[in-house]
Amino acid sequence: MDHNENPFQDEDLIFAWKQPLKKDSYEPDEIMHRDEEIKLYTNSLQDIVEGHEPNNVFVYGPTGVGKTAVTKWMREKLQREAQRRSVPLHIVGPINCRHYKTAYRLVTTIVNELRPADDQVAESGHSTDRVFNFLYEEIESLGGNVLLILDEIDNIPPDARNDFLYDLPRAEANEDTPISDAKIGLIGISNNLKFVDALEPKVKSTLGEREIEFGPYNASQLGDILTYYADLAFKGDVLDDDVIPLAAAFAAQERGDVRQGLRILEKAGEYARMEGSSIVDEDHVREATENIETDEILDYFDDKLSIQQGLAYISTTLMVIEPQKEARTKHIYNLYTKLAASANADQVSERKFYEFLDQLCMLGLARSTERNLGRKGGRTYIYEVTDTPEDIIKACEQDSRLGGVLPSNVYEILEHYQKGQATSYQAPDKLEAEQRDLFRFA
Ligand SMILES: Nc1ncnc2c1ncn2[C@@H]1O[C@H](COP(=O)(O)OP(=O)(O)OP(=O)(O)O)[C@@H](O)[C@H]1O
User: Mutation test of ligand 1: which of 32, 149, 212, 259 has the most ligand atoms closer than 8 Å to its C-beta?
Assistant: First the structure.
């Protein structure tokens, strides 16, 4: 290439406006194929516009199926209707719990959202009880109904669980709070049902007063939704007819997740643009789907999994391809302790570690089957990973926190596993002792 040449294309022949394809950066005006869920949602919120106490609502389902999009859409409709009927209502959120490690941080964020810019609470310097009191005072001074929307509620800081999910919705009845007039409702969104099962029964029944389940989309529904975004994002007539059905079929076969469909469309468009083509065709879509799995897993590592969950995920994957042992809970835990040490991360107890394995299953990243241990008695679980181990290992390798924990002979073992010869593999003696160890634990 001539280095004096301008490498950029003069004109983008493919994209008109990329934002609608980007991860959660565009709020659609229209929600498709969620009429039933919207009906249930509306019914749960109807009490507010009638001037009754708000219900607590729990919204759950897998990733990318419209839980947040529908919630935001409902928020606008609810706010408008409350205004029309002159019902006092203040809506806070959705606030993503994953971004807050402590109750203090979460409460201050909410207080500051309710307070004017010149009267914000500092990020430290008070007790958590004190900031909770600030929150109650703010809510009381607003009066009327306050609806708090918490997204990814399974990531709520552990020290905030009961305060938010039990005490807050009951604050009006509690004489220790300054709240006598305002009514507080909570909407919790999650893709982790086990989280709710693990809550204390009183907390569980508070949060789950009304539950709305969102299932995966099928190919035809995804086709309609992707068409809506593609009309905004691509220039006229650049998509071949089979592009959207193919992207929709791929995403439906995987998880029924819109985000994945949008990502395929964006990548397919980029491949076409890179070639200087003015048309996106089937081959571009196929090419786009090739690395999509690794990219998505990397997203999980970056965004959704804590370092401990990431270690649990990679230990499970390595145990699946490990030559001589089944991926049993105990074996996975043993390997995890070694990986945690090599990542300089804390080592959690076995019981806590099993929670991480459960969370991986809830996220759809792993699956377990119960196994009876015969006469010796007892039971164990055998784990599988739902993506191919190769994609997971490639993603892990690219992750800044976890890349270094992979044993150096991982690809060799993977190759044996892929050829169905895993059990005949012997770790070569020349491997550094530490690496060899990873595959030789009792
Ligand atoms: N029915 C729909 N109509 C229009 N857009 C949709 C619909 N469902 C999902 N989307 C879009 O798909 C993307 C993912 O949806 P959303 O963020 O609501 O998923 P989610 O179920 O909340 O996922 P997660 O649990 O990962 O947060 C967003 O860009 C959203 O606007």
Answer: 259
Amino acid at 399: D
Task: Please state which architecture CATH assigns to domain 300-438.
Answer: Orthogonal Bundle (1.10)
- Among protein residues, the one with the nearest Cα to ligand 1's atom 12 is 258
pLDDT digits (tens, 9 = 90+) for 379-414: 788 999 988 899 899 989 888 888 888 887 888 888
Spatial separation of the C-alpha atoms in residues 119 and 267, rounded to whole Å: 45
Which CATH number among 3.40.50.300, 3.30.200.20, 3.40.50.150, 3.40.50.11440 corresponds to the domain 35-213? Answer: 3.40.50.300
Residue 385 token pair? 């990973």
ipTM score over 0.95, yes or no: yes
Q: Write the single-letter amino acid at 289.
A: T
Helix, strand and coil in the chain, % to nearest 5? 55, 10, 35
Q: Report which protein residue has its CA nearest ligand 1's atom 24.
A: 63
Contact 260, 296 (CB under 8 A): yes
CATH 1.10.8.60 for domain 218-297: yes
Ligand 1 centroid, distance to 97 Cα (angstroms): 17
